[in-house]
Specification:
Elements (H helix, E strand, L loop, with lengths): L2 E6 L2 E6 H13 L15 E4 L1 H20 L11 H11 L4 E4 L6
Antiparallel strand pairs: 1-2, 1-4, 3-4
Length: 105
């Protein structure tokens, strides 16, 4: 399993790379407009600006709002919603660095 390590200062989050890829697709489905090609967010090392992080989080928030109001239009959904929510909360705090450690590649 490949893990993506997201870090901001002393705060961090480790998620499965598949969850990250699914989150990017869902964020676009719910209105996020990436400033660069989505594939650039799948590299082994990259940085997320404050706008990028909060943009992804905002789009995922729309997904959660819709899941509550119209669950049949959202489910079934592939990623674990608990893990996706944790990612959304982390990203809502702003800029972060992302890295897939060499031992996971």
């Amino acid at each position: 399993m490949n893990n993506l390590h997201l870090k901001r200062g002393n705060d961090g989050l480790i998620i499965d790379c598949k969850l990250w890829a699914d989150a990017l697709v869902l964020a676009e489905d719910y209105g996020w407009k990436p400033p660069i090609l989505r594939m650039n967010y799948l590299r082994n090392d990259f940085e997320l600006s404050d706008d990028e992080s909060k943009g992804i989080a905002g789009a995922l928030n729309k997904l959660f709002d819709r899941a509550i109001k119209e669950p049949l239009k959202v489910y079934p959904i592939r990623p674990n919603m608990g893990e996706l929510y944790e990612l959304k909360e982390f990203l809502s705090q702003g800029a972060a660095t992302a890295r897939v450690p060499a031992w996971h590649r």
